Amino acid sequence: MGLMDRIPAYVDRLPGGSVVMAPVDWAINEVQASSMWYMLFGLACCAIELMATGAARYDFDRLGMIFRATPRQSDLMIVAGTLTLKMAPRVKLLHEQMAEPRYVIAMGGCTTYGGPFYHDGYSVLKGVDKIIPVDVFIAGCPPRPEALLNGCLAMQEKIRRNKLGQPRGPAIHIPPTAGRFSIPSGSPPSERDPQIPG
Amino acid sequence: MSPDEFLPTLKTRFPEVEFQLDPLNPRALKMSASGVPEVFAWLRDAPEAAMEFLEFSTAVDHPPDRLELVYSLYSYTHRHRLVLKVDLPRHAPTIPTLAHLWQNADWNEREIYDLFGVFFSGHPDLRRLMMPEDWEGHPLRKDYSHPNLTPRPD
Predict the structure, then answer these.
(1) Are A11 and A18 in contact (CB under 8 A)?
(2) Model pTM?
(3) Chain B partners within 8 Å of A86 (Cβ)
(4) Which ipTM was obtained for this model?
């Protein structure tokens, strides 16, 4: 019953089987958070770290993350690398081609604010959030696979806080140093948060 | 052959073109723009030169009035190399293309056109290579500015 212990649900045993009653928010969020299929593309050196994270040593698969080579089958866009002004309309188009619900992780300094090209750079978009909404920002140049995994855990945590019919919480920022991400204030509570009795 | 060995041969064969050794680089020759593309065609086809390979072509901006094209040629037959530099007026740089001699000159010249604004007459397809098609200006000019460009603070 390991899994069942974690479900905020009421289980009723009837002749012929069991009935589970759970909040629909929880069911939808858990399904989404457990299978974030990400789109297969990379723009610069962050893509190398993304590939390393997807490979055997760090293993994205254990989070239920599998790369998809088409935006139609993708739930998550990991913008990995320097986004030039020439590339920006293409990335915006790819984001629009993804089906809702869709999520975006901005990986590395370039996608967060322009990175090393912020000064004296004429060809780089200074922050991918200028063209598409971003859920998680990961600092680093490039972020190590551990930081990317941390960002994906934060993405899962953010999905688990979704409420039906309500807007998403604010973006989560993953710091460059090691340590657990912090959920920004203003995020809705999760079903997993410790319940305060009384 | 080294550049100083090329120099007398080129001077006798192309008397109307000015050649001189580059004072900054002993491996390079400076030449006037009137020799393009005849000198390059000879360097490619003459048996004693046999420059089969245009290693690269690029440009250097020297404000306020000079723009310099740099061509590097290499011969697999003789294993020798020659760098040729051509000065152009910066306000209206135009030079004949080399795309009919070496195919890689096509994209090299598109890149130079894109980033420095040099016009290559006779080029088969002179479009921007790096920047978006509707970009204005030529970013590697030293007086280039753009609204997106934030100067680095001192």
Answers:
(1) yes
(2) 0.82
(3) 130-132
(4) 0.77
